[in-house]
Amino acid sequence: MTFYGVELSSRLLLGTARYPSPAILGEAIKASGAEVVTVSLRREAGTERGGQSFWSFIRALGLRVLPNTAGCHSVKEAVTTAHMAHELFDTKWIKLEVIRDDETLQPDVFGLVEAARILSHDGFEVFPYTTEDLAVADRLVEAGCRVLMPWGAPIGSARGLNNAYGLKSLRAHFPDIPLVVDAGLGVPSHAAAAMELGYDAVLLNTAVAEAGDPVAMAKAFALAIEAGRMACRAQPLEPRDMAVPSTPMMGRASLGD
Amino acid sequence: MRIIVNGDQHDVEPETLASALAALGYGGRKIATAVNGRFVPQAIRDSTRLAEGDQVEIVAPMQGG
Predict the structure, then answer these.
(1) For residue A236, what are the contacts with CB-CB under 8 A and spacing of at least 6?
(2) pLDDT surpassing 90 at residue B14
(3) B6 and A80 in contact by Cβ < 8 A?
(4) CB–CB of A4/A146 below 8 Å?
(5) What is the pTM for the complete model shown?
(6) Which of residues 12-41 of B touch A (CB under 8 A)?
(7) Which domains are delineated in chain B?
(8) Average per-residue pLDDT for chain A
């Protein structure tokens, strides 16, 4: 799997927020096998040191980071945040979020496309957090995005793939663009389902971080993603309306009246 | 001179962004800055002069999803 020319073997991208402790975060990342972790940026007072110690922690992991623009509600905010993230994390990658609705954290797809165009022009490699809408995806590709990250369900909702049909259509429509289901997954079977649809990867955070045992859940997701990927490549059966006997009927003994 | 730093008022000597950051305890820190909503790269903090009422945003790395 290649994102903007970077070859990755793990198909799980993991968020770093909401873990019970930095130690558990570190163990969960290890158990997940993730090679990319998402990070963010927030205000810090001169007397605080949280951001500095988090940065040391992340740097020590030696993984690739994908900074986000979480919490941005306008194109201007998202673009400025992306530039700040570029300076802080020294990467051209940006997980672009422009949020419209605070209840559902639904992306503002109009602002998203505009911000993606500006940032791509500025040399960023944009990972847009979007919906499964085909026309929006098309606009994002036109704006320069070479990875698309449609939601499964609203962030943190643990509902899984709300619109599997829409996600499947998106896959069929963009066979050559890496597609990542980002957000809304709750259990490993959701991730397996995304991979069975032919998605390239899954981005998770809350489902692992807020599980009773985040480290075991990270491993469970990694296994499910591998299983789903393998199943997709093994060409699964299409669902049928009628039963088809699995045991051959030919040669069946005649024992009736 | 009064400026707004991360939403709070601070009194600083009329100076540059770089010297205000040092005075506020950010010296040598991993931070990114914006003034009045515009990104100010590290390389030009020294030459960026602050004015009365400027809104300075200072952010650091943090956990995210």
Answers:
(1) A196
(2) no
(3) no
(4) yes
(5) 0.94
(6) 24-26, 29-34, 37-39, 41
(7) 2-59 (3.10.20.30)
(8) 96
